[in-house]
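Subject: design request, 230 residues
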């Protein structure tokens, strides 16, 4: 063999030895650079780590600072929600404190399921009668983009209770029976007028009726009865 051929075989053998050593070496070997330093022409094994762990230095400090900031934001958001819930007052409690006329304005609620009617606006409160307005928004619609039947049933519940409170501010009671008949639809973006009336207030039961009408033409959308144990 010529000298050049022998030299080439030696270089190939050395490179192969480096590659085998690199494959079997622990991860710490790569961080020290001892294997890679043995040959400037060697190529790291496919199993070599491509991104070493960041345990110190400016990058680690930046990551730690970012995590601390994110944790602080999460804590502050949770605290704000808790404070908001604590400060909120339900329409039932509002009437107890300030009287039936306190119902007028935007629907007061403490969150939970009642919050689906957060855009309900109480326009008028009289003795045994309550009138409200509600715009059909996306969160209140069904698959046909009309006012959901569940939302209408909730209106019968809430506005019926308001009608009771207009006469007996401390007797919100609990529901015994709710029934709703659906007659027509209200489309997304349309306004609905809701009128609740107290039909009877007895010693143990209160009976109400709630009618929902399309504001633009007065068409009856639904009518419901709500009986409460007081």
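Subject: RE: design request

Done. Sequence follows.
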């Amino acid at each position: 063999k010529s000298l050049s051929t022998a030299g080439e075989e030696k270089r190939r053998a050395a490179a192969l030895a480096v590659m085998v050593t690199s494959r079997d070496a622990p991860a710490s070997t790569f961080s020290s650079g001892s294997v890679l330093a043995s040959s400037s022409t060697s190529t790291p094994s496919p199993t070599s780590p491509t991104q070493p762990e960041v345990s110190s230095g400016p990058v680690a400090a930046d990551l730690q600072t970012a995590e601390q900031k994110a944790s602080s934001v999460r804590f502050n958001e949770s605290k704000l929600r808790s404070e908001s819930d604590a400060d909120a007052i339900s329409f039932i409690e509002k009437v107890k404190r300030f009287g039936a006329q306190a119902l007028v304005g935007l629907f007061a609620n403490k969150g939970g399921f009642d919050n689906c009617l957060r855009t309900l606006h109480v326009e008028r409160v009289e003795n045994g009668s309550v009138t409200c307005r509600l715009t059909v928004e996306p969160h209140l619609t069904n698959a046909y983009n009309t006012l959901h039947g569940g939302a209408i049933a909730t209106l019968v519940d809430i506005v019926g209770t308001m009608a009771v409170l207009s006469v007996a501010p401390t007797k919100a009671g609990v529901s015994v029976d709710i029934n709703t008949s659906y007659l027509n639809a209200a489309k997304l973006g349309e306004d609905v007028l809701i009128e609740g009336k107290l039909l009877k207030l007895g010693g143990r039961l209160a009976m109400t009726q709630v009618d929902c009408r399309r504001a633009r033409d007065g068409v009856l959308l639904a009518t419901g009865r709500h009986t409460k144990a007081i």
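Helices lie at 3-24, 27-32, 58-87, 91-98, 149-165.
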